[in-house]
Design a protein that fits this description.
single chain; alpha/beta; Nucleotidyltransferase, domain 5; 2 domains; 5-stranded mixed sheet; two-stranded parallel ribbon; 3 helices; 7 strands; elongated
């Protein structure tokens, strides 16, 4: 008589937990790839002679209103000079990345602040022009 008793259906939850954990890890890893290095989206100017450079040791982003961002923090020119003086500025490669609407005067102020900090390796970031 035991053979004729109906078995109750069981919902196995362990495989569902495995799948949900895999999806969570996948989306976390995917979303981390979408976040820019500094947290600010900078629309770089274009140049036909632009080349791929290694990741800079210090990225300085210039906004069109004259503000500077270093490692996601807004600073001024004096703080940039002080930051470079704290580091070994001669071995620090500084890359300046500005939006298309940044004035040349703001770029030169940033270069002056970097040089006053003691850095000698200065690069300007640009996107490669596609014709």
């Amino acid at each position: 008589m035991r053979y004729f008793t109906q078995r109750r259906a069981r919902v196995e939850i362990i495989p569902m937990i495995d799948i949900m954990l895999f999806l969570l890890v996948f989306f976390v890893m995917f979303s981390l790839r979408m976040i820019p290095a500094s947290g600010h989206v900078t629309k770089l100017p274009t140049s036909s002679s632009a080349a791929q450079i290694p990741t800079p040791k210090l990225l300085v982003e210039l906004e069109s209103n004259g503000t500077l961002f270093v490692e996601g923090n807004q600073i001024n020119y004096g703080q940039l000079t002080a930051l470079l003086k704290q580091r070994d500025a001669e071995k620090t490669a500084v890359t300046l990345a500005g939006t298309e609407s940044v004035s040349l005067q703001d770029v030169l102020h940033a270069i002056d602040a970097v040089k006053a900090g003691g850095a000698t390796q200065i690069a300007l970031a640009a996107r490669k022009t596609t014709f």
